[in-house]
Amino acid sequence: MAIDKGCELFDCGHRACGGCGASLAARLLLKAAGPETIVVSSTGCMEVFSTPYPETAWKVPWIHSLFENAAAVASGIEAALKIQGRKEKVVVIAGDGATFDIGMLCISGAFERGHDITYICYDNEAYMNTGIQRSGATPYDASTTTSPAGKVSTGNRRPKKDMPRILAAHGAPYVATASVAYPADFMQKVEKAINTPGPSYVQVHAPCCTGWGFDGSKTIAIGKLAIETGLWVNYEMVDGEVTKVKRVVRKPVEEYLQEQKRFRHLFKPVTLTAEIAKIQAIADANAARYGIDIKLPPRSGAEAA
Amino acid sequence: MALNVGCTAPPGRARENRTGSWRVFLPRFDHEACSKCGMCQLICPEGCISETADREFVPDYDYCKGCGLCAEECPKHAITMVQEEK
Asked: What CATH number has the domain bearing residue B51?
């Protein structure tokens, strides 16, 4: 593979769960970014599992900020490198809680000031490190410890926040979504983001076997199902315009939902058809908005009729 | 100006933590069936699969947690998960 730099900059021995999507995202990120990179990590699962003091899995300069200010720390590093005439690239890797909720202010500031940083959000759709609390990235009807499904609730009541569009609205020259289920695509997007001058954003879907409730061997299968059902869309935006979209022959959303314990309440003890229809409507809206549907030619039998 | 603040750790020191002890199932690689596509190496969340000089993909059992992602995704089904013997 052309962009494989042939080195393991995110090393063995980290304490992520077996099959962790986020740890795979960290590895792929550094494979694409290479050694001339300075990484800033906010508080989150990745920070905790990769750097329990005095251990670290990172083999590039890495700094832990607070939960909320990774983008501000990266801004400062970028400004300092610039004035010294240095060429290292500054990359933030933060979870969806740190990105969608807690770090929003600092991200908005960094993007508005136009720092040459790459912000990567590994999106596992809740606060996994502290025990699966809902975040602004948690999808509709997912059961978390702060949006538990039960007699009075069917899980998280709000749809996922559209973070990529918020950052595109800041005038970011490059915004993309990716998934660890498509590693080559993710690495290409990271490379592109790093080589784009100005602030760029890549949001990578990182299935969490512990938080979503599936076997660790299925991380990539689940990531693929999210895309194949239209509940996650892989696209690129250049200067605010969508330029590239991953198109699929769509599957019904049940195929994605029933594989995960966080959606189990939609099928047991009774199938909540109306709720599943609402989730299907979200997928349909995604499909219409991004034009992801591949139209199969009608079968010859149908034509004859 | 030197600023001695915060905590630092030498790069890659996590290698001291041998996560292979977590394993319940162990991936067995069938090198005959392998098509050398490198998918297992690319997607291993541990980054513990390497390619030998004779183009064989081998996991480092000191760090493999036995998640089974490589076995699940191998297009040739050349990796099987077997119960660990301890």
From this structure: 3.30.70.20
Q: How confident is the model at residue A3 (pLDDT cuts 50, 70, 90)?
A: very low
Query: Domain for residue B56, yes or no?
Result: yes
Q: Which residue of A has its CA nearest to B67?
A: A18
How many structural domains comprise chain B?
A: 1
Q: How far apart are CA A109 and CA A93, in angstroms?
A: 17
CATH of the domain at A198: 3.40.50.970
Measured at the CA of A62, the angle between CA A57 and CA A68, to 5 degrees, comes to 115
| CA-based nearest distance B53→chain A, Å | 14
Does the pLDDT at position A244 exceed 90?
yes
Asked if the Cβ–Cβ distance from A219 to B45 is below 8 Å, we say: yes
pTM of the model: 0.94
Residue A197 CA: distances (Å) to CA of A172, A191, A192, A200, A297: 10, 12, 10, 8, 42
The domain of B50 spans 32-83
Say which of B16, B47, B73 has its CB closest to residue A10.
Answer: B47
Q: Tell me whether residue B40 is in a domain.
A: yes
Closest CA to A92 of A124, A116, A128, A125: A116
Burial environment of residue A137 by CB neighbours within 10 A (0 to 12, 13 to 18, 19 or more): buried
User: What is the count of structural domains for chain A?
Assistant: 1
* Alpha-helical segments (H) within A134-176: 163-168
Distance from CA of A14 to the nearest CA of B (A): 6
Question: Complex ipTM, two decimals?
Answer: 0.94
DSSP A149: B
Which of B58, B67, B81 would best serve as a mutation to test chain A binding (most A beta carbons within 10 A)? B67
Mean pLDDT of chain A: 95
Which residues constitute the domain of residue A269?
A: 21-304
B75 within some domain: yes
Task: Give exposure, A39-55, as e/b (b: 16+ Cβ within 10 Å).
Answer: bbbbbbbbbbbbbeeeb
Say if B68 falls within a structural domain.
Answer: yes
